[in-house]
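Q: My collaborator sent me two sequences in one message, no labels, and asked for predicted structures for both. Can we handle them in order? The first one she listed is below.
A: Yes, handling them in the order given. First sequence, followed by its structure tokens:
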Amino acid sequence: MIDAVDPFIGTEPTDLPAPVGLAATWWSPKPQIGNTHPGATFPLGMVSACAYSGAYPTGYGRYDLSTEGVPAPIHDRQLASGLAHFQQSGTGAIRKYYNYFRVSPMLEPLDALGTSWALHDEEAAPGWYAATLDTGIRCEVTVGPKSAVHRYTFPRHRDARLVVDFSHGGLEIPFGSTVPLRAYLQSVAPGAAQGEIVVEGAPLAVHVECDADQWRQLLWYDRRLMPGGTRLDFDSIRPTTLRPFGLMWAGPTRAGQSVELRFGFSLRGPEQARENLYRDCGPGPTSFAARREATTRTWREHLDLVRVDAPTPERKTVFSTALYHSLIKPCLAPAESPFWPGPGPFAFDVSTMWDIYRTQLPLLTTLVPERAVELARALLTVCEEEGNLPIGYRMAKGADRFSRQGSALAHTLLADLCELGLPGIDWDWALALMHIDLRRDYGEDFLLRGLAHPVSHTLDLAMGYWCTAKVARHVGDGTLAEELERLADRWVNAFDPATGLLRDSTFYEGGRWNYSFRLVHDMAARIGLTGGDAAFVGLLDRFFGFGAEPVALPGVHPGAEELARGYALDRFEGLNNEPDMEAPWAYQYAGRPDRTAEVVHAVVHQRFGTGRGGLPGNDDSGGLSSWYVWASLGLFPVAGQNLVLLNAPAHEHAEITIGPEVLSIDTTGFVPPERGGPAQYVRAARLDGAPLERSWLTAAELRRGGRLELELGPTPTGWGSTPRPPSHPGRITPTTPAPEVPA
């Protein structure tokens, strides 16, 4: 699968064929760009490295910051002023980006630092990125879990140089830069230096080595060299007092001469950074080829966990790249917490928990369960040390308080891990922290009034209580479990029985329709509250645009009136954003898996493609890409419920390696899908040879592996309409009449 990955997918604005049919009725308000980067990454590793332009997205792109519509260009071509370290993957406007320790290979004097050169002959593969600058310098970079190795191939020149800017960070757009608060750097030996910058309260240390033995090694400040200087210290830096500073190696080059720079990073000081470098790359002096080979091998192992027989090379590229993007974040950095002692797990770039908890975290739990446990333990430690299970957590002091976006989302990951019986977590400890966390922010309103606004938090918190009750039962505390289950029943308070939709409220990145079809733990009661199957399906049909006219999508700088008209459509966002990403599977709880098949078919084959513009919206740390991985396999996880719903896959055959087991998904009657063509339906299913009438598997069944056989056809047969996916009834008896479907 690794050979089919294209890391450039998602780096430019959405550029897909005009939608047809059902997909043409969907409205996409959020930035129409994947916000990915093509730089070198390591699976769930701490470090990434990529060419740096200073523009959005992630510092690699050529666009201005965008929150709606098509982003506006600020460069007419791909540029770079060097290669920087630490990038987000697919996130939107999250306030800050990293891009620390920029390396600029130069033939010009130091005064020219910050010059941007056009990029030519860009190439990328998992774990490796390369490009040639206008100056003729070929730049390559690869990374390890906590390291990066650069290789620069120079033309003949009397005084080439490699300049490392310790003061650099963020984006070069308004309010985008990151200023170090304190810093130091020092030369420790010929060809070796180290230092530390404190950025947003986090100390990031580096140990760097250069293999150009005959080159001069110099510190510099404010673009002026400091001959003979061996150390720079900055006790207090402000935006108004910042002057660039860093380190440089310089010397003559012959044509085709290559020079390597090796970086080790740590959040616990330069000595640990040095240890990380040597653990990842050996003692040197050179290590680019070996490190790239090792990283490629690790990526191959991860990407080979899922194999598909794609109908075309293009669809294999889309799938392989989606799997790749799903395995970049979060950053797992064991024994690296700068805020509390100990050798335990630490994680950052849990940047958009409200996007990843439904798709990407269940994918990690399935494919790399030991890393999912590591992440869970890291989140629990954050809660113990800082008081809350984070909704967002970056390389910065303190959890990001993304209070509007969601509540109690980590509870779904913890409940799934607990029910699967995966080792490595003290569940009494976890239960105490999960229970306390339910009172954060909107949790007090939920407890006191049974309803929290924004009303989507009522659904979050009810699910959080239900997930916590599962852990309570696991540790044998039945009394607490019953109390938590009673509170979990309050999800019903979020809905207006007169409409079958959520109550009027404020909503984050969407409207009440986008949030009204969440897969709550008691979907039978949810459908009953709406008035029954027919009324619920009617609402879904209205939401997905069955029978509706095509709509126009926002362009560059959409105005308030244009956005208001679009939001008033109350329409599915077509995977341009994540709040309604699970809604297509709500049909299955009402006995209509055929409708799920039609919607998912339109998304998979019209909203994802090849090329730099192949994503419909922000990838959001793999939340979007992991949706595609699941959906094209004919599966969808119900987060927190250890349930996987079934649908027609986009591949004739697939194999998923799950620990020591393999799940084979085989089809009969498969017809290669066409963009805009008809959907295929599951007409019958067998699991390990036995008939399977239900449209779901438990996560435990998935983990056991075996053979899932799906008979596909051009018309539905009623398969999967009964029995329905499990609901977990509380004490709710819906008695409301069937509402009319809003026009």
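Q: And the one she listed second?
A: Here it is, processed independently of the first:
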Amino acid sequence: MTERMTGAQALVRALEHVGVDTVFGIPGGAILPAYDPLYDSTKVRHVLVRHEQGAGHAAEGYAQATGRVGVCMATSGPGATNLVTPIADAYMDSVPIVAITGQVASKAIGTDAFQEADISGITMPITKHNFLITDPLDIPRTIMEAFHIASTGRPGPVLVDISKDALQADTTFSWPPIMQLPGYRPVTRPHSKQIREAAKLIAEARRPILYVGGGVHKAGASAELLQLAELTHIPVVTTLMARGTFPDSHPQHMGMPGMHGSVSAVGALQKSDLIIGLGVRFDDRVTGDLSSFAPYAKIVHADIDPAEISKNRHADVPIVGDCKEVITDLLNVIQTSGQQGDYADWWTALNSYKQTYPLGYETFEDGTLAPQYVMERLSAIAGPDTYYVAGVGQHQMWASQFIGYENPGTFINSGGLGTMGFAVPAAMGAKMGRPDSTVWAIDGDGCFQMTNQELATCALEGVPVKIAIINNGNLGMVRQWQTLFYDQRYSNTDLQTTRRIPDFVKLAEAYGCVGLRCERPEDVDAVIKKAMEINDVPVVVDFVVHQDAMVWPMVAAGTSNDDIKIARDMAPKWENEDE
């Protein structure tokens, strides 16, 4: 059945048909025609953010917490370019979002018209696909295609740019449209021969490791992963994007690998003779100096994106497919063959690493708060059913290291792009996607000052997120590098928040939130419990921590994982080597 309506009405109707319930955005001239029918929609809730970057990160948080496609909307020119950072962030972390932008009238495109920017050209390298619509008839089909592309295969951001005259013009609307994506056929079923080859290597290995990335969570395969790990008794490491995909409390979990990973996780990769990489990128933060990464290991690499396989490290057994299907097929082959590897010596070595070099931290004699202690207590009090959303920097690493993750998807952060300002709007989006869950944003005092205006959105929209600001008065991670590598020359990292500029408690109150402050270890529990009791408005807690707290362990950028330090000038002694 076809109806007559404007392009703008067709856009809103299409969004309703693909199941959108929440859109984050800000109106402006070129997108204004779309906002008029949005006013009448009973199915789509529009959330008026305070900055377009906030709209994009909120869409990401919503997508990560729900597994559905997040949606953000902005006008042309500066509105659209303000979405570039969250689009790039979503691209790096494979987050399914659709960004809808207004564009100047089709006849004005290319004339440097007021508020014109070639947003499809600008975002081409950082989107899975993007569209420029100048014919209103194309709107329903393009929206359906955009959501299909964003959510299938390797998820990612899709941009839909629509000219103002296409939104204003009359058109016919019919649903469902027929998609026209002849070249888009993501492979989800793995090749059975490759599965058998992988199973053979697993049976032959003496020191295997399951290297688990965000792709396993995105495939909804955490239950299958647990089954595979327990069947084979192979140790597991989970990357920053996979925290919680395998339970932290499980005895086979070795921790997080990488630059600030645990000694047991980094050591397990370095000493392994077989790495089974599932939904991972072998990125620089995990591998360190690539030429010295896991020198004894053969590689099984499974990923839904063929471009990732052998990109950084050659795969002996490449497997293209959805991780859920890959793991399921692997389980079937291993169970049928009945072959079991002998990993007794391997477990002796790994358990030794785990016991000898557990994660720890420095406490301060002057009674100053250690940020890691805040994380430990937050984890204990808020619990594993909470969603934790981190910004970028030291606080992000402490949140990964000292909070216990038992459930998939409960740690949301900006991994690939490392976007300061991610936490507050992403937590807002996560809370709107999961209104019955507790959502804690863990932010640094530097990150928080980039997007804290979204507290106004949270307060007005009734989104009671909880924000823990880890306030060390500095751009902490940069300061740590200046301490270690730049002779303590602290160039432009002092934020002066120790002078209470701004006063985060007063700022929270000015935004209609509850503001709390904690400066002493003995007060941490009471302050967290008080924040947990407030569920009708957002809560901001200013945890004033020691400015020189550092993130350890650490593999310095560009160095070998063998050179991991557990503290300044302190390295683990690798034992039980049988190479």
